[in-house]
Amino acid sequence: MNIHIDYHLESPCCGSAFPDGHWELECPRGDGAALITTRYARRQFCPREESSGLYIYAHWLPVDRELLGSAAPVTYRGEALGERLGLENLYITFSGYWPERGAMMKTGTFKECEAYAVCARPGRRDDKVLVVASAGNTARAFGRVCSDNRIPLLLCVPEDNLDALWADEPWNDNVKLVCTASGSDYFDAIRLSSIACEMEPFYPEGGAKNVARRDGMGTTVLSAVARVGRIPDYYFQAVGSGTGAIAAWEANRRFIEDGRFGDHLMKLMVSQNLPFAPIRDAWRAASREMLPFDETTARRLAGEIDARVLSNRKPPYAIRGGLYDALLATGGDVLAVTNEEARRAAALFQRVEGIDIEPAAAVAVASLEQAVRAGRVEREAVVMLNITGGGMARYRQEHAVVGQTPDRVFPPGAPADEIKRGLAGLF
C-alpha cells in the first residue's frame, strides 16, 4: 500500500536541507563527515490507526509504502525483573517472537525494524539489487522481508555465521546469498559487498548512514514512550555498531520537539561483550576516535564472545552525529560484561519474564544488573531496557525452520575480479 509521509533530509555538516528520493547516504553538498538526518513535517507523535505492524509509526519513518508482514516492538512494564533488580519503573521493549505479548517478529530480532523501513524508503531502485552485508541477524531479517515482498537482494555473510540464517521456508529466488569462506568475519563480508556494488545492477543499503535504518530502529523508543507516557530516564542496550543507540538519541530529540513527553535526554547506557569491547575502550580513553588495534588480535577476541553480532570493529563512533556525540550529549556510558555474566542474565530473564533472549540482549540485561549494583541507576528512575532479540528458541520449537544455502562462497581476500566473475549472472 502506498502512503505519503512529508519529510526532508538535513545535514549537520553544512546545515543544508534537501529532499529524499535518490537514496542519499551522505550530504550531496557537504564533506560526508556527518550522519544526515530526517526532519518530519509532523512534529507531534501520532501513531497511524489506519496502519499495522511497524507502519503504525510511519509518520516518523522515511517511507512511501507499507510492506507485507511487519511487526512492531512491544513495550511492557517489567515488574518481575524490576523487582528482582530493585527497580520500581522498569519498562522492557521487546523485539522478537512472543505471541502472548503481541510480539510477532518471525526472525526474532529488531533488525526487522530496519529492514521494513529501508525497503519501503523512497529512492529504492526496483530495477536494481539491494546489497546488504551482515554478521547474521540483519541478513535473516532482510532475507525474509525481501523474499516475502519480492525485492531483489544480495546478502553477503561470513560462512561461519550461516547458522543464523534460518526461516520457516526457503527464501524466494529474488534473494541471493553469497559468503566469505570459513575463517572470515563480518569485515570480509563488507569487502565482498563493496566489490559487488562496483557492478551493475547492485547498489548499497548503506548501514548506519541510511536514515531509514536508524529511524526504523528508533521505533523501539517510540514504542516505549507510547507505553510509558514520557521519555525514559535511562536507555540500556548492547551495541556492536551503536546504530541503535544513535537512533534512540535521534528519536528522543523528536519527542523533546513534540513537547508533550518531557524535555530531557535519556542517559544512553550501552554495553559490549568482553573480551571484545573496542567502543568501551575508546570511550574510557575519552577518545573521539577508535583506538588502534591489531587486526589479528581483534579477530581472535571477536571469536571469543557469545554475542557475535556485537563484533563490529569499525562502528560509526567518531563521525559527527555518531555514537560518541550521542553518548556525550546524553551523559551516557559504555559498560562491558563477560560471557558468563550474560549467560546468567539470560537465564534470569527466562526464569522471571518467561521467554528466551539472544546473547546480545543478555549483555544488555547483565549491564543493567551491573549498573544497579554500582548504584548508578536510581530505584525510582524510569528505565527502558531494549531487548533486541528474543523468542528465537521458541519460534524454532514451534515451526519447522530451514537453513539457507549459499549461492556462492569466496575465499577470504579473493581478488576483486574473481569475485565479480562469480557474481555475474546471479540475477
Task: Characterise the protein shown here.
- Strand 12 (234-238), helix 7 and strand 13 form a beta-alpha-beta unit.
- 53% of the residues are buried.
- It is globular and about 60 Å long.
- The strands form four sheets. Strands 4, 5, 6, 12, 13, 14 and 15 form a seven-stranded mixed sheet that branches.
- Helix 2 packs across helix 3.
- The chain has two domains: 74-110 and 212-390, Rossmann fold (3-Layer(aba) Sandwich), CATH 3.40.50.1100; 122-209 and 401-427, 3-Layer(aba) Sandwich (Rossmann fold).
- The longest helix has 16 residues, at 243-258.
- The chain has helices at 79-85, 111-118, 137-149, 186-196, 211-217, 219-228, 243-258, 278-284, 295-302, 323-330, 339-353, 359-373, 392-398, 416-423, and strands at residues 7-10, 17-18, 37-40, 74-77, 89-98, 103-104, 129-133, 153-158, 166-167, 175-180, 202-204, 234-238, 267-273, 333-337, 382-390, 402-403, 408-410.
- With 427 residues, it is an alpha/beta fold.
